[in-house]
Amino acid sequence: MENQSYYRSGFAEPGDADCRDDRVPLVVNCAGYVSMTRDFRTTGCRHDYYLQLMDVGEMTGGAVGEEYSFRAGEFIVRPPEMPYRYGLEHDGETGYYWAHFTGNYVETLLANNGIVPGKVYRLTEEIPSSVRRTFGEMFREFMIHGRGYEDLCAAKLTAVLVELGRSVSDSGTGRETRFAGLLEYIHRHYTEDLCIAELAESEHLSVSRFREVFRRTFGCAPSEYIIGLRLQHARDLLSGTNLTITEIAEMCGYGDELYFMRLFRKKTGMSARMYRLGHTADRTENDGDR
Q1: From 38, 87, 190, 194, which residue has the greatest number of CB atoms within 10 Å?
Q2: How crowded is the C-beta side of 143, counted as CA atoms within 13 Å?
Q3: In what order do the strands lie in the sheet with 40-44?
Q4: Whether pTM exceeds 0.70
Q5: Are 152 and 188 contained in the same domain?
């Protein structure tokens, strides 16, 4: 069995890293990667959380009174004080990533990403390359122990859990996967004359299907999403610059000032001029307080 193990305290006994600390939001006690090629067994019960992500092969595992097959592409986050056992019952290559972590933010972090402690999840695809890369970056931080490494390791683990949560999302076509590239394009070009048919074609969807999937993912039509970006930009310019409304309309993609003003009133409930006056007054009051 090949075991790569990395600890907060450098070289340590495994038990030294088994601790619960509710004084901090999140800290990674230790992490690593295990590769096995022969039969083995392990049992345990820890005071911290235990993430196990199967990379290759298959193991048997479970808690007391239950048994399951743990296959590549599956993961579990075991809660503190949960007895566990797992092992390899036949010769063959099996490997998994692991991390032990603690903190008063862990429950919220897991809940925010739809991860229930003690439940085995199957990724929609193989382990994302970004997860492998992030684990490797976490290992490097543990090896170097540079300034702020504990904070950075906590951030790396957060990124892993977010990615895993997204990979098992019930939607299967969430904004973080299906439309990631498209959103980047829209956010760079929303002030231009974007064609919905061309956006649909870029996703290999018919216009009707594109609108349906987009609405289900974001809660609005693609055209409404673009309008929302334009009007947010308009509000920023109205409250933070002395540009004329005509100039702002053009910068937000509207060559017709009157159309822009009607649209702004319809979507915000006030005219562009009233919006500017209100925010100018707010700035004046704030400046007077200093």
Answers
A1: 190
A2: 9
A3: 40-44, 84-88, 58-62, 68-71
A4: no
A5: no
